[in-house]
Structures are given as structure tokens and as C-alpha cells.
């Protein structure tokens, strides 16, 4: 039998994917329930792909790296002081700050061009930045937990950690974004 | 082969156990020869099997962990070192087989093992207060007298290896290794007299070569590990050089043994000499293959440094400061092996290396000492060097 036969790929991935559908669907439902806010402030729809995309990619990279580190033993599956784990999470954090600042600046420009006024544009920029920071923090710690779990159980991180992390990332991104916009912009 | 269940153990943890086991099994194999003990030989076989399991697990971990070519290159180094540790344990299995098959051991082997620098002894605990009721963590034998305990025979059962929580009881038989003076101290603590072996056989060349090979192979292995720990190509190159020297000694042994066969009444006994030489050669080859990882110009995986700083016996590099109490004294005066259990493998002085320095070598300020010893032993040495 081939190492990755059709049956095995389906069998291993299917349950995880179903779980991912459920999680991601709730992200969609959250968006749907906030249709009022979106109609009042359509820019939210432009903001969803970047916040989810960046969040998921950054955390997937972290998950893959952690899986290797756990197998080699440079990271141990426990919380608490660990140099390599700290370096990894810090790098992820810094990387996302760098990317999200840039994205926030673009949204500031877009808001200004569409005639939103300087004060509101700045507020929008901060709302997006704050939402992305909270989203990334939560998703990152979920990633760490899932990576530990996949190592302890001997699961394939590519088949388990990354799909679940990206689904959680979707929910976190949408939730944080809507809450931040509601608070800051009052829609 | 039974199916092996997945256990989440990282390559680092497995590597630590493999190094500890290979260090232990070599000495136990010599002990089985020295005492012609089938029981010890059986323990050697058990440890050898354990090593096979560990090798299997570390291969799994390495296969799962590699995610890109650069990482995979570094991981092959880990597998090579693990493979060398396994090769060492396989070689010792052959030594144990001599005993288990009831092959006669030539007396020159006893003499050679007893006249090597590193001694092996069986010490019966006959007297109370000094040793009994204390565990090995409290006793700290390696860092006070340089003596490592390999195994304990208690009644009919064996404890291999004793852990830091193992207590010494009256009547225990301790199988130990270490410097002769250190073992003398342990004997006094245990209330027994150490018998000095008499040299009776008239094969001095074989005796000398075998005992030299025994010390050399263990120094080579330690130097090879230290070359990885420190990432030193010079030390790795020296291991390679020693390996050539070792091969010459090996050749000499074969020649001398064949010569001796003419006069020997019982030729079967002499074959044990050749068998032992062959095994020690395998150990030196393994040391060379560890050193090869450093010489290959592939960046060393950070797991090495972490694993090697968590093994029972460690290698360390310490810089001697101006104010250190070591400065100006000879290694003979300091006698570090017996006082703190640290054996100096290499002295790095400015840009050159002094390998296996003799007793007359003086320690100077600015030297770097590369030593092996127990955790507490090397920590003591660190403090002494700092001043």
C-alpha cells in the first residue's frame, strides 16, 4: 500500500475537516448575524480576508515549526519557561505586528480616500490593529496547545494542527474585528 | 519483532538515554570479563537490546521532525551519533558473548583491564555507617572520589544502573569504575580491602597494548562527544588521528597474539584476546564516526548541546581565570580525577591543543580545560577555574 493512499488521506482528513467546517461555519454565522453593522460599514468585508489570511498563515508557520521542535526535543510539551518556545512565540508576535501595522496603514489610506475624515480614519486604523492583535494572541496559544497535543498523540501536524488552527483563526479574526469596529466606530 | 507503540519521547531525550546506556554498557562488559560473570554479561545483553529499541525510536523521531533539507542535514548528524552509540553497545554485546558462551578468558585480559588507568572493581558493602542508608544523590561518589557505580547486586537481583534515589544497603555488591585511588577510598568506606592483582603472565606487550587500547578507546569516545558539544574541529581531527594510532596498536596485538600462539598450550584462550581487541576497535571506530559529524562541515543541531549537558557523565569546557586556584599547579598535584571526579581530556592553550595531558602538565591562566565528569564534578571544576 502506498504511504498516502486515497483511502488513508480521506480517512485521516475527513473527521478533522468536518470539525473545521463546523468551526469556520460559525465564523460565517457571526458575520451573518452582524449584517446590520456590515451594511452600515461595508469596509468590514474588505478587512475580513486580510485579518484571517495573515492570522492563519502566521500561526500555521508556528505550528509546523513547533511540531519539529517537539520531536527533536528543543521544545518540551509543557508551559513555563522555555527558551526556544519563547523565541518562537515572540518571533510570531513580532512578525504579525510588522505585517498588521502595514495592513492597518493601507486601511487608513483607503478610509481617507473614500472620504471618512482624518479622525475616523485613524480610529479605524487602530480598531483593525487592536482586533488583529487580540485575534493573533488567542490563535497563537491555541496553536501551541494543538501542537503539544499532536506530539503527545503522535498525530500528523499537517493533517490536524494546521486545519484546526486556520478554522480557529477564522472565528477569532471575524469576532475580534466586529467587536472592535462596533466599539470604536459605533455601528 | 514486536510492534513498538508510539511514545512521545523527543530525539533529545532518546539521545541522552543512548549516551548514558552506551557509557554504562562498555564498562559493564569489561566488568563481565574481569569477573568472568555470566550475570553481568546478561545485564550487558539486556542493555544492548534496550539500545536497539532506542535506535528505532530515534529514527522515527528524526523522520517526523525533518521539514526541510537544511534541517534534515543536521538531523542526519544526530542519527549518526545515535548509530555510533548503538555500535558501541553492539561491540560490548560481543564481549559479553565470550562469557556467555563459556569461552576461556586468557589471564592477560584480566591483567590488562586491571592495569588500565580506569579501574573496575566489585566492592562488597561490609560496614555500616559510611555508605548504607544513603542514596547516590547524597553520596555523590563521582564528584568526590571520581567513582561511578555501574550496577548493584542485591541478593539475587540486579539494579542496573542505580539512580540517584537508589539507597546503598548492607551486603550490596557494587560494581564500580574510576581511578584506582578513588576505588581505594570507596573500599575503606565499605570496610573491605582491595586486593592488588599480581602480574603473572609473560605477555607484557599484549598486556600493555590491551590496557592502552582500553583507556584510549574510552578517551576517544569522550573526546568525540566533547568535539560535538563544543563544536571543535581540532578535537575531532585528533580523534581521527588517535583512531589511526589505535589501528596500529590493533595490528600489533594481532601480531603478538599470533606469535604467542606458537608457545601457548591452550590456543582457545588466546582467541579471547583477539575478540576483545576487535570489540575495542569497533568502539574506536564508533568514536571516529561521532567525530566525523563535526568534520563534515554541516552545522551541528542544537539538540546535541542540550542533550550532552543532561547526560550522567558530561563533557565541559572551562576557561581558567587569572585568579583561579588551578593556575601554576601541575595536573599531578591537582589530581582532579580523584578530588572532583573530572578527567582532563584536552588543554587548549592559545591556539594549540594539548591532548590527553600528562601529570607534569602545568595549568596556566587563560587555558581552556576540556574535561569529562559527573554534573556536580564539572560544576566544581567550573568554580575552581573561575577562582
> For this structure, what is the CATH class of chain A?
Mainly Alpha
**CATH architecture group name of chain A:** Orthogonal Bundle
For CATH, the homologous superfamily of chain A is named as SLC41 divalent cation transporters, integral membrane domain
| Helix/strand order of chain B | HHHHEHHEEEHHHHHEHHEEEH
Reported for the largest beta sheet of chain B, the result is:
4 strands, antiparallel
Oligomer: heterodimer
Q: Please outline the major beta sheet of chain A.
A: none
Strand content of chain A: under 5%
Global shape of chain B: globular
CATH T-level topology of the largest domain in chain B: Methane Monooxygenase Hydroxylase, Chain G, domain 1
Topology:
The complex is a heterodimer of chains A (187) and B (387).
Chain A: H1 6-33, H2 35-40, H3 43-72, H4 83-113, H5 118-153, H6 161-185
Chain B: H1 11-34, H2 38-65, H3 69-100, H4 107-115, E1 118-124, H5 136-139, H6 141-145, E2 148-154, E3 157-159, E4 173-179, H7 180-190, H8 204-230, H9 233-263, H10 267-295, H11 302-308, E5 313-319, H12 331-334, H13 336-339, E6 343-349, E7 352-355, E8 368-374, H14 375-386
Antiparallel strand pairs in B: 1-4, 2-3, 2-4, 5-8, 6-7, 6-8
Helix pairs in contact in B: 1-2, 1-3, 1-11, 2-3, 3-10, 4-8, 8-9, 8-10, 9-10
Short description:
The complex is a heterodimer of chains A (187) and B (387). Chain A has 187 residues and is mostly helical. Chain A has helices at residues 6-33, 35-40, 43-72, 83-113, 118-153, 161-185.
Describe the protein's architecture and organization.
The complex is a heterodimer of chains A (187) and B (387). The N and C termini of chain A lie far apart (57 Å). In chain A, helix 3 packs antiparallel against helix 4 (83-113) and helix 5 (118-153) packs antiparallel against helix 6. With 187 residues, chain A is mainly α. Chain A is built from 6 helices and no strands. Chain A has a single domain, classed as SLC41 divalent cation transporters, integral membrane domain (Tetracycline Repressor, domain 2), CATH 1.10.357. The mean pLDDT of chain A is 89. The longest helix of chain B has 32 residues, at 69-100. The N and C termini of chain B lie far apart (55 Å). By secondary structure, chain B is α+β, with helices and mostly antiparallel strands. Chain B has 3 domains: 11-106 and 201-305, Up-down Bundle (Methane Monooxygenase Hydroxylase, Chain G, domain 1); 113-190, Alpha-Beta Plaits (2-Layer Sandwich); 312-386, Alpha-Beta Plaits (2-Layer Sandwich). The mean pLDDT of chain B is 90. Chain B has a 4-stranded antiparallel beta sheet with strand order 1-4-2-3. In chain B, strand 2 (148-154) and strand 3 (157-159) form a beta hairpin. Helix content of chain B is 59%, strand content 13%. Classes of the chains: A mainly alpha (187), B alpha+beta (387). The interface between A and B is medium-sized, with 15 and 20 residues.
